C-alpha cells in the first residue's frame, strides 16, 4: 500500500517574527489562512487516503498539526522529542510504516514549498510510487526541473534513462548548493535537477539500506517502534545527519546494493525559506510593495509589508524604500531588505537582549 | 487671586499612531509614564493650589484629563464641545475665572512642551503675575530666550524695558514663523524672543479687550458662563481665530487702551510637535538610535524607534538607517525620517483606506 509522510520539522527562524520557537513556518496561515502544512496535505487529495498520511514534526507542534489536519488520526502524527536532522525523521517514519505494513511504499514529502500545478505534482508522485513498487531496490528522489540558476538549492546530476519508464533517470551524483557560475552551467547543460528533498521508497528497502550504512540508527528506530515508551530515551541518541549524506549520496556512489533514480517535477516550485521568497507569493499594492494583511502605503516602493497582528491593526508606511516590515502580536521587525537573510542573527540578539520568549 | 489655565486641546496627528483622534499627544504617557499634561500640571506645584488650576481641553478628553489629574475638581475641567482655535479657549476660561473671582489674575499655559529647569519657569511666571497684578492694563506674554534660529516658532520683537520691573519689556511687534535667514537675523540681533503662546492677565482686562475687539465673542462667553446648559449651542457660534490675531497683535499695535509686555523665559524649551522633536527627548541605544520601550537593534543607525505596544512586545530593527518606527496596539508606522513631518498626509490616507477608527 502507498503511504505518504509529510516532513514538517524545523524552527523557521528566517521568517521571524511570523515564525518563532513555538510556531514554525509550516504552521503559519500565510496563504489565505492556510499553512504550508495544510497545502502539503491537500496536495495529496485523491492520491492516498488520510489514514495512510503521516506527519513527522516536532513534538511541541503536534497539537497544532492535529488542529490543522483534523482528518488525521493522532497515531499518524509522529512527534520528535527533539530535532535530529532529516535522516532520523525518515528512518523513524519508515520503521513506523513498515511495522503497520511490511510491503508499504512510502513517499517522504516536504512542507516548505508552494507548488503548482497540483495535478503535475500528483502525476510525478504517482510515477515515483510505480517505480518504487516495480523496482524494490530503488530509492526514488524527486528532482525539480530548474527554471533558474538558483544557488539556494542542491542539485542532482542525471545519468541515463531508467529502462521501462518514461522520464525517469538514474542519478549520477548529488551536488551541494553551487556558486552562481556553477549553477548557471548546471542550468545550461540541461542535465541537472534541483534536489527536492522528497523521496519514494519501500519502507523495507530504506531500512535495509540503513542496516548497511548506519546499523545503529536502523536498530534504534526499530526499537522505538517496538517500545514507544522509550522514545524520549532513544531518539536523542540517534546520530544527527541528513538523509542526503547518510543514504542518498553513498547509495548513488554504488556503495550498497540499491540504486538511486529520479523522477522529474515540472512544476512551479516556490520554497518559502525567507521573506524574499515569501514576498513573491504575496499580492502587490499600487506602489508595487508586496503586502499581506491590512496595510496602507504612501510614497513607498519595493517594500515587503506583512501585517499578521490582525484586522484590528494597520501597518502604514511613508516614504519607505526596499524595507521589510513584519508586525505580529509579540514582535515587530523592520529590516533593510538587503539584510533579510540575516534575520537569524537578529533573532539571536532578540533572544539575548529581550528574552527567549520573544525569539 | 492667581489662577492658571492649562490649554490642552489639539489632536496631534503629527505623532500618529501614538496620538490619535481619541488620544491627543498631551495625554500620552511618553515621559516615564507621565504625559505632557501631567508635566504641565506638576510645573505649577507650589505656585497656585489645585483648586485654582483649570484645564481647557476637548470634551472627548475630559475623562482622561480627570484620570491624569485626580487633584482637580471636575468643575475645573473645561471641555470644549469642539475646537474653535486658541482665542475661544482663552476667552471662555477668562469668563469662567472672572465669574468666580472678579479680581482674578490668570496665567494661560500650554502643555505642548518639556521645560527645564522648572524653578526658572516658576520664577518667570511669578514675575508675570506681579506685572499683571500691578499694571491692570497689561497683557503679559511670555517669551522664550531663543537658543537657535528656529523656523517653527513665532517671534516677538522686544521694545524698551518696562519701568519698575527687571527684565520685562514692551512688545513692539509679533512675527510669524520666519524663513531661515530671517530667523537667523532675529537670533543675531538679540531683540527677539520665541512666542511661547503663554499669557498672564487679569481676567477682567482680557474680557474688556474682547469687548473692544470682538464684542460678539465677549458676549457669548459671558452667556456660556451664565447659562452652562447652552454651551453646546453657543460654543460652535464663536468665531474661530487665534489669540495672537484676535488680541495680542492689535493690542501691541496700540489699537486699544491696553498694552502688551513680555517676560522672558530663560529655559530649555522643547516643543514636542512631531517625532523629530520627540526623538531629542528619548534615550539612545548603542547604535545611536533614539528609542523608547522594548527595542532591539542590529546594525541600525539614526533611527527613531518607539515601542508603545507594551512590555510583551519587542520592536527589532536590522540594517535600518534613518527610519522612524512607531508601534502601538492599533497601528504600526514605518517612515523614512525625512518624511516624518508628512505624517498627517499618511493619517489622511489611513482614514480613507483603512477606516476612521485607525486614524
UniProtKB/TrEMBL annotation, chains A, B:
GO terms for molecular function: mannose-1-phosphate guanylyltransferase (GTP) activity. Residues 293-348 form the MannoseP isomerase/GMP-like beta-helix domain. CDD domains: GDP-M1P_Guanylyltransferase (cd02509). InterPro entries: GMPP_N (IPR049577), ManC/GMP-like_b-helix (IPR054566), Mannose-6P_isomerase_type2 (IPR051161), NTP_transferase_dom (IPR005835), Nucleotide-diphossugar_trans (IPR029044). It comes from the Bacteria. Coiled coil: none annotated. Keywords: Nucleotidyltransferase, Transferase. GO terms for biological process: GDP-mannose biosynthetic process. Residues 4-282 form the Nucleotidyl transferase domain. This is Mannose-1-phosphate guanylyltransferase. It comes from Tessaracoccus flavus.
